[in-house]
Amino acid sequence: MHISILIPQGAILASLEGSRQLFAQVNQLIKMNGGEPVFNIQLVGLKHETPVAGGLFTVNANALIGDVQKTDLIVIPAIDGDLKQAMENNKDFLPWLVEQKENGAEIASLCLGAFLLASTGLLDGKRAATHWIAANDFKQMFPNVELITEKIITDENGIYTSGGAFSYLNLILHLIEKYTGRDMAILIAKVFAIQLERDTQSAFMIFQGQKDHEDEPVRKAQEFIESNYKERTTVDQLAYMYALSRRSFERRFKKATKNTVTEYIQRVKIEAAKKELETGSKNVNEVMYEVGYADIKAFRTTFKKITGLSPLEYRNKYNKLAMTA
What we know:
Number of strands: 11
Strand order of the largest sheet: 5-2-1-6-7-11-10
Number of helices: 15
CATH topology of the largest domain: Rossmann fold
Distance between the termini: 50 Å
CATH superfamily of the largest domain: Class I glutamine amidotransferase (GATase) domain
Number of domains: 2
Structural class: alpha/beta
CATH class of the largest domain: Alpha Beta
CATH architecture of the largest domain: 3-Layer(aba) Sandwich
Radius of gyration: 22 Å
Helix content: 40-55%
Strand content: 5-15%
Shape: globular
Largest sheet: 7 strands, mixed
Low-confidence stretches: none
Order of helices and strands: EHEEEEEHHEHEHEEEHHHHHHHHHH
C-alpha cells in the first residue's frame, strides 16, 4: 500500500513526522515477525526541500507530486501560521489531490490540515473535524462543509479528518486498524502510549464566541450575555434591547455567530462553570447556581452535551484539588 504524506509549507512537524513514525513502526513490527512491510511510505512535496515550523526545520521530500502518478492514501499534516496565506502557499497541491481522489486514493487531513483539504472542494456536503480553536474561521471559509466541532475523527467514505493537535494520533490508529487489523492498532497504541477510543475533543474546547463580524447590535448582545451570564436572559429581552423583532434578531445572531441565541447563552454559562470547576473549591450545585442555573438536571444535561462529560467528571478530571483528594 502506497502512502503519500504531504509536506505543505508551514507544516507542523509533529503531525508530519508522527504519522510517518506510526506507519513505519507497523512495517517494523511486521518485519520482526518475518513478514513483508505493508506500507510504502513517501514524503511528497512541491519541491525537494520545504521549510516547516516557521523555518526552524527543513523536510526533504522523497518525491514531488509530479512523480506520484498513483497512491492509495494521502495524509495532509497540520499547518500553522496565517491560514489564508497557508492556502495560497500550498494551492499547487489542490489539483493533484482532486486527481488522486478521482483515481481512487483515500485522503486524511490532520488538525488544521482540514483547511487545505476543504480548499479542494472534496469536503463539500461532507462532515469534517479540525482544531476547535479554528472552528469559526473554518465555518466562514467553507460554509458548504458540515463542521463537527466536537469530533476527533470523521470518516466519510475514504475522506478522513481529525480534531485538534495530537488527536491526529487517533486518526492514524484508525487507519492502521482499517488496513492491518485491530490487533496491530492496539499494539501500536501500546508502543506509543496512545489512549484508544477517544472520539470527542469537547472536554478540551474553550468557547470564545464569534465576534469577527460587522453586526453591531449582535456584538453588543454578545457582550451583554457574557457580562450577565449569572442572570436569566431571554431572546425577547435581547431583541427588545436592540430594537429588533425577535425573528430578525435570531436570524442575524445565527448568521453572525454560527450559534442560536439560546446556544450562545448556554455556552457562555457552561464556559464559566468549567473555569470554576477547574480552579475553585465549590461543589457542582454551588457552581450551577453561580452561573445562573436553578435546575440541576438541565445544568447537567447541557454541560454534558457541550463538554462530553458530566460536571462531576469534568471537575475530577481537571481540578487539581479533586485529583489529589
